[in-house]
Amino acid sequence: MLKSDAYGKDFRDLEGFIGACNENGSLVPGHEPLKADLASSLEKTRTLKIQQESLQGNSRAATDRFRDSLEESNEKASRLRSFIISVLGPTNPLLSLFGIPPKKVPNPNNRRRTKQKAKPQTPAPTPAPEEPTTKPPGTAKPAE
User: Fold this and answer.
1) What is the DSSP code string of 41-97?
2) Using one digit for the tens of pLDDT, what is the confidence trace for 23-74?
3) Which pLDDT band, with edges at 50, 70 and 90, does 82 fall under?
4) Residue 122 in 3-state DSSP?
5) CB 66: neighbour CB atoms within 10 A?
6) What is the C-alpha to C-alpha distance for residues 127 and 95, in angstroms, rounded to an integer?
7) Cα–Cα dist 7/5, whole Å
8) What is the DSSP letter of 90?
9) How confident is the model at residue 140 (pLDDT cuts 50, 70, 90)?
10) Which of 6, 20, 83, 108 could join 2 in a cystine, given CB atoms 3.0 to 4.6 angstroms apart?
11) Which residues contact 91 (CB under 8 A, 6 or more apart)?
C-alpha cells in the first residue's frame, strides 16, 4: 500500500513548474491558457487525493466496525445455539434443523473392549539352597 505522501514529489514538481511559469512567463508568450489549465488540473488532483485519503480512513473505520459487529453477531449466535441445545437436548436429531450437529449416542453394542491389564507375574521364589546336613561329631552311627 502506498503511503499517503507517496505523490508529494509529484505535487511539488507541478507547483514548482507553475511557479517557474509565473516568474518567467514573459519569456514564453501565450502560455497563460495552458498554465491555467494545469493549475486547475492540479487543484482537482489535490482535491481527489484528499478525498482518497479520507475514504481510506473511512474504509478502515468501516472495516473495524464491521469486524466488531461480526464478532458480536457470532457471540449472539453462539448463545442462541446453546439455548436451543439446552431446550432440545444435546442428542436430539432435531438439532440438525438448526444446523447444529447432535451429539452421537454411544451404541452399547459397539463398545470397544478394553484389554484387562495383565497382572505382573512375580517370579516364583527360588528355594534356598539346602545346606548339607552334617552331623555333629560323635553322633555317627556305629558300624555294625
Assistant:
1) HHHHHHHHHHHHHHHHHHHHHHHHHHHHHHHHHHHHHHHHHHHHHHHH-TT-GGGGG
2) 988 888 899 999 999 999 999 999 998 998 899 889 989 999 989 998 999 8
3) very high
4) coil
5) 10
6) 69
7) 5
8) T
9) low
10) 6
11) 102, 103, 104, 105
59 near 69, Cβ under 8 Å? no
- Over residues 90-111, the pLDDT tens digits come to 999 888 888 989 998 887 787 6
- Distance, in Å, from the CA atom of 68 to the CA atom of 85, rounded to the nearest integer, reads 26
The label of the residue with cell 431446550 reads 87
C-alpha 73/C-alpha 7 separation (Å) is 40
Count of positions (residues) in the chain: 144
First vs last C-alpha separation in the chain: 124
State CA 115 to chain mean position distance. Answer: 41
CA dist 41 and 48 (Å) reads: 11
Predicted local distance difference test score (pLDDT) of residue 29: 87
47 alpha-carbon distance from chain centroid? 39
Grid cell for residue 49: 487525493
Cell numbers found for residue 107: 451404541
Residue 88 contacts residue 94 (beta carbons within 8 Å): yes
